[in-house]
Specification:
Its main location: membrane. This protein has helices at 22-27, 31-55, 58-65, 69-97, 100-117, 123-149, 157-165, 167-181, 190-210, 215-227, 234-274, 277-285, 289-317, 319-332, 334-338, 343-371, 379-391, 395-405, 418-438, 482-490, 498-503; strands at 407-410, 413-416, 465-467, 474-476. With 504 residues, the chain is mostly helical.
Length: 504
């Protein structure tokens, strides 16, 4: 199939049945569906809490290790650089062995490394542990999204995507609250934040232990064994998994590149607007540490609201249209974000810009999962996300270094102009994200990816290898309606039509 970009942006396909009320659908969920979702959300929240432990502690870490801000942000850069390794390792384990135990091990690894960071005595030790932490952090997003979304009804996945993604904002908010209420009151100072974050991550691993394996993954595994006529050895599953992964990469290399470029823009947007925000408020606006933390909390409240609303709206407007609208909103509020000097206006700017930034992000979990080859919905989104993170890893250092070259005067003192640097960076990134969204492939909106065969199943790399509900045989299904058929034709793919593969 020819690779096609600039697919028209359309509203979401009209559902075959009248949409049910949101509250009714939520009430119909089983306790296990709720549990899968909230454990996935908690895992992603823990990830963010552990990551932002550094961002909210930059001044304290600088004082502890006698280092400037640009040096402390190296820890953020190194964490982001190593996240790709974790995404590849844990994503492969999840698509090959299941959702449960890879996520448990991932959360325990993060908890151990976060705990160790609270005991370091030198800056080199701190950098080393934060680099290793990046490996652990990199795996969680892909595992959390697949755990949370694949067991939910299709109609709820938009709003669930928004709420799930804003676990990131909630983790940031939680880090700010702990820094505000606990760190200032206890003798260990910033170390208490890292220890607390470690305990919450370990608790998340414990909760995942209590739940069974994902029902969607179990169904795919049973279908693979049924098609093979009995139990398949682990070695054979691994050989099939490697073969199907190779086939997927050959078919979808263009889609992989596109997803990485899109997520590079999104990660620059997130880290550029958040990582140095507390430092910017303190140094550029002359406000207290307490005020900076409160402004961060207000901004994250905007992020949570924006993510949930945009995720819900994308179920009707479509994923791409919702992303573009949120990016336009972000650009409109850049002046309110950087120009005021008073706390109230700054906090309002933080709230509004995070509604836009994290509103767009709220669509990403479901958009990327629907875009992914279905059998690789833990590996593909996670790796694309974390390679984008790796490319954008220097965002905080770019802003810190740019601030050293652009100066401003605050209370008679010359300081780095972080506000101007952030405004320029975010404005450029917003334009890039809008461009990448417009030139992207058509959406696979409301895809039933949970019915797809597993990656260790023969023909699992095929897009249309669905499991039949009655006899677990493969259904080489046609798209059910014209809208989704047209979307399938416009998707970015180098895959040949399946009929040609069979004939070959």
């Amino acid at each position: 199939m020819k690779t096609i970009f600039f697919a028209p942006m359309r509203l979401a396909p009209r559902p075959e049945k009248p949409p049910r009320p949101l509250l009714k659908m939520l009430l119909e969920l089983t306790w296990l569906q709720w549990a899968y979702f909230w454990v996935g959300w908690l895992a992603w929240t823990c990830d963010a809490l552990d990551f932002f432990s550094v961002s909210v502690s930059v001044p304290a870490l600088g004082a502890q290790f006698n280092r400037p801000t640009s040096d402390i942000t190296q820890a953020i850069t190194l964490t982001l650089l190593f996240r790709t390794v974790g995404a590849i390792v844990f994503g492969i384990f999840s698509d090959r062995f299941g959702r449960k135990w890879p996520l448990i091990f991932n959360l325990l690894l993060v908890a151990i490394l976060e705990l160790g960071a609270g005991f370091v005595q030198t800056f080199r030790q701190f950098l080393a542990l934060r680099s290793l932490f990046g490996i652990g952090m990199g795996g969680i997003w892909g595992l959390a999204t697949s755990t949370a979304l694949e067991n939910l009804p299709v109609e709820l996945r938009g709003v669930a995507s928004g709420v799930l993604q804003e676990g990131y904002a909630f983790g940031n908010l939680l880090a700010a609250v702990i820094s505000l209420k606990l760190v200032a009151e206890v003798r260990p100072g910033w170390r208490a934040l890292f220890w607390t974050a470690s305990g919450i991550s370990a608790f998340g691993a414990f909760l995942r232990c209590l739940l069974p394996e994902s029902e969607a993954f179990l169904k795919a595994r049973l279908a693979a064994e049924s098609a093979a006529g009995g139990t398949i050895s682990e070695g054979e599953k691994t050989r099939v998994f490697i073969r199907e992964t190779t086939a997927m990469l050959k078919k979808h290399w263009a889609l992989c590149i596109y997803a990485v470029l899109l997520l590079t823009g999104f990660n620059f947007l997130a880290h550029g607007s958040q990582d140095l925000y507390p430092t910017y408020v303190e140094e550029n606006k002359g406000l207290s540490t307490h005020a900076a933390v409160v402004a961060t909390i207000i901004g994250n409240c905007g992020a949570i609201a924006g993510g949930a609303l945009a995720g819900w709206g994308s179920q009707f407007l479509g994923r791409r249209i919702t992303i573009v609208l949120c990016e336009i909103l972000t650009a409109a509020f850049i002046p309110l974000w950087i120009l005021p000097n008073g706390f109230s206006a700054l906090a309002a700017g933080a709230f509004c810009i995070q509604v836009g930034v994290q509103g767009a992000w709220g669509v990403i979990p479901i958009h990327l999962t629907e875009m992914a080859p279905p059998a690789f919905r833990a590996t593909f989104p996670g790796v694309a996300y974390q390679i984008g993170n790796m490319i954008s890893s220097a965002a905080a250092q770019i802003e810190a270094t740019g601030g050293e070259h652009l100066k401003t005067v605050v209370n008679g003192k010359v300081v780095p102009d972080y506000g101007k640097v952030q405004g320029i960076l975010i404005g450029a990134v917003v334009a890039f994200v809008i461009l990448m969204t417009i030139i992207g492939p058509a959406e696979n909106h409301s895809s039933h990816f949970e019915r797809h065969r597993a990656a260790f199943d023969k023909r699992g790399a095929g897009e249309n290898a669905f499991i039949d509900d009655d006899d677990d045989e493969v259904v080489q299904a046609e798209r059910p309606d014209k809208d989704s058929e047209k979307a399938s034709e416009e998707r970015v793919s180098t895959e040949k039509p399946q009929a040609q593969q069979v004939a070959a």
